[in-house]
Every structure is written in structure tokens, then in C-alpha cells.
Amino acid sequence: MTEGRPKVVVIGCGFGGLEAVRVLSRGPVDITLLDRTNHHLFQPLLYQVATAGLSAPAVSAPIRHVLRREIRRGNLTVLQGEVTGVDVAGRHVIVAGAGPGEPADAIAYDHLIVAAGTTNSYFGHPEWAVHAPGLKTLADAFTIRARMIGAFEQAERSTDPAIRARWLTFVIIGGGPTGVEMAGTMTEIAHHTLRGEFRRIDPKSTRVVLVEGADRILGTFVPELSERAHEQLSRLGAEIRTGCRVTGIDADGVTLQRRDGDTVLTERVEARTVIWAAGVAGVPLGRALAEATGATLDRGGRLVVEPDLALPGHPEIAVVGDLAAALSYGKGEPKPVPGLSPSAKQMGRAAAANLLRRLRGEPTRPFRYVDYGSLATVGRKAAVVDLGVPGLGAVRFAGLGAWLFWLFAHIYFLIGFRNRLSVMLDWAWAYFTHERAARVVAEPARETAPSGS
Ligand SMILES: Cc1cc2nc3c(=O)[nH]c(=O)nc-3n(C[C@H](O)[C@H](O)[C@H](O)COP(=O)(O)OP(=O)(O)OC[C@H]3O[C@@H](n4cnc5c(N)ncnc54)[C@H](O)[C@@H]3O)c2cc1C
Predict the structure, then answer these.
(1) Which of 86, 137, 239, 362 pairs with 270 at a CA distance of 20 to 30 A?
(2) Which is the closest atom of ligand 1 to the Cα of 320?
(3) Does some domain include residue 186?
(4) How far is the CA of 115 from the centre of ligand 1 (A)?
(5) Quick check: pTM over 0.70?
């Protein structure tokens, strides 16, 4: 650290925070990067950990290792800790004590970039969380994987047909990309991976039910691609319920409602394994920051930011990534920026560049999001792709070609050569054998949450 240099604190080393640090480390600043975990996580492949296709190190990497070059430059300190609040007047962030009874730390800043992302949101029903884990962190993925694999084991043990059927029913709530990926993969596991491994149950009798509140799955894609995804997923064997609202989740299953004209129809699906892929909201730190600065939170708990990604009245604080309710200032009317990894990366870079501009006494620039398109995989040889190609307009395709495109795009964007190689090998093996590389789980935890690797 160099005395007298402006101090920048970056909270969160997801896609947004990582890119911000990479840009800032070349500038005349001293950076402290704080994350509550020790790893950067490639969330787009997290469902592969949850469904035993990949192990945790394939989709995550230690932050220190990812940023080793920047650390060697001498102006970056990486610290693991949970930021619990920001003292805006005193310009320091508060980091929870490292162990029981240990005091909280105060870390001073001149400039702050907040890239803390989102957490699962249960639409006002936090009590559902225990029955229906969401998928945001590695710990979530381990929980889901243990429940999914455990469900087949319990079904094999059970002699009661009703109980067995409950263990062999999986409900996934939310028909966005994560829900669709989970449903497709779970169907394949039941139909192919587990074939011939059980004596008392036929894994093929497994029901995978995907529930979506809107009238189509993959609602952010054009209707034609939603339809293609629906067809592909049904062909794999999943049951898809669109236009269905979840009204209850308990240890034995879910209660659904849908409207048929003026009539409200209620359906009960008995299931031991329920997965929540329906909603996220800004992390609690967003609310703390809104209270400290007077900034506005949108309905999803995201902080409304200025065109240059700073908080209103606080040019020293920028918010990027999923936690920011930002607009893109391109041609025409400003458009909302989607909660995706490319937008988080672009915001991270833009906020860092604006910070360096401000230090040079230059005006900041409004954020402009460059949309390269969207991809979603449905299962083996099934995916949908919607690309914006300069000069060609929208290029849309589905099926095997889209699946190969999805595969290579995800391998390309993974952090680290080792991860790319290991994912490529695991997927090639799985393609020919239907095997899944990470099916071993620790014995069920008795007092603590499930863990694994
Ligand atoms: C299952 C899943 C699948 C997805 N699939 C895709 C996809 O296919 N394509 C796509 O483009 N996008 C996808 N996304 C969305 C994409 O991952 C997010 O848009 C992106 O991660 C947002 O980046 P971020 O930096 O804002 O937040 P994150 O990547 O979530 O990073 C936030 C970081 O902040 C840390 N943090 C949070 N709170 C604190 C605190 N109080 N103190 C310290 N550290 C804290 C967290 O540990 C984390 O490292 C997916 C998301 C999920 C969950």
C-alpha cells in the first residue's frame, strides 16, 4: 500500500466486483476487496454441481488465486469477511468479527464499489426456504445435490408405494433458465444415469414437475424459443405446469393454484424434494445501504443508481451487478439492465473506469450495456440461443446446434485453464456414458448443514 493514495473498497467478488478490481488495480489507488467467501463462483454452471455433473472446484476458484497477478502489483488486499453495514458519514465499512466474541472491523474508504449480488427470495414466505432450497451458493448446490441423491436412496428403502412415490417426485418452482436446466438434468438422471443401478425402484418412474407462474417458460426469451424449450423439455420427460401459482410448500410437497376462467383450481403435488428457482432479491446489505444513504430500493430489493452507477447524492459510492437497478444509456430510451453475468461484468468495468475518471478530474460517463444475447440449456442436445449479431440482427436457433454453442460458450467463460479442461473432460465423459462425475455425498449431517465438494 502507498501512503496518500485514494482508498477503494470493493464489496463482493462475483462477476461485477472481479472486473472492477481488475480495472482498478492498474490505477493509482489502494484497493481492499472483501468477500464473505474465499472463492469466485461461476453461477451459470452451479446447477451442474447441484445435479452431480461437476464438482465444486470446476465452477469456482479461490479469489486470491484468480487475482494473484493483481495482488503482486502491490495495491490490492483481499480479505474474507461479511460486510454488515456502511458508515457513510465516517466513510468506512463494517466487517463482522472473524470468530465468536471477536470485534467487528472498520475498513476506511474514499471510494466504495458495492457488488454484493442477490439472494433467494420467497415472495414473503421465508418459511418455505427450509423445504425448498434455492440455488445461489455452493452450499445451496451441496444441499440440493444431497437431497436429490438421497431421495433415490430413500425410495429404494421404502416399501410403501405412496411414500416411495413422494421420494420419486421432484418439483422445481420457477421456469426461468435455472429451473429449466434443473428440470432437464434431473429428468436425464432418472431416465439414463441411474438405469440399472436399483433393484426395487425403477428410476424411470420418477416425476419431475416444473412449475411456472407465467403462461410460458423462459419468459425473457421470444415466445418461439420458449415454445421450442417447452417441446424439448417435455420430450425429455418433464411435466410442465404453466400459469400455476405456488400457495404452499411443506415437508410433504407443494400446493398449486391456477385459474380456469372464473374457477380457481387447486392441485397438491406430493414430493419430498422441492427446489426454488423462482425469485431473487438484493442482499440485505442493499437495504442497509439504502437506509444509510437515503437511496431507493426497487421491488426486487435492488438499489436504484444514477446513470454513472453512483448512488444519488453519493458520487463516492457505486453499485454494480445484480444489486443495482440500473438503466442502459444507448441509442433511444434508456432500458433496464438485465441481471446477468455479462451486465455485471460490464457494470464493474464501467464503475471502475468512472472512479479513475473522477480521480483525474474528468466527468463520469453514463453506463451503456452491450447485449450479446441469451442462451439457455434444456438438457442433453437441447438448448435455445438468441444472439444479437451486428449487421445480421437477431439470430435464433434451438436443438443440437444451440446445445453445442451453449457448451462451448460456458467453457470459454469459465475462470482458469484447469477448470475449462476439467469441465470439458467431465462433459465429454458424461456425453458418452451418461455418468455424472460428482454423485458421492457426505453422510447426512446431523447437526450442521450438508457439506461436500
Ligand atoms: C443458478 C444461477 C444460474 C445463472 N445462470 C446464468 C447464465 O446462464 N447466464 C448469465 O448471464 N447469468 C446467469 N446467472 C446470473 C449471474 O450469475 C448474475 O447476474 C451474476 O452473478 C451477478 O454478478 P454480481 O457480481 O452482481 O453478483 P454475484 O456474482 O452474486 O457476486 C456477489 C458476491 O458478493 C459476495 N457478498 C454478498 N454479500 C456480501 C457481504 N455482505 N459481504 C461480503 N461479501 C458479500 C458474495 O459472496 C459473492 O461473491 C445465474 C445465476 C444463478 C444464481
Answers:
(1) 137
(2) 26
(3) yes
(4) 9
(5) yes
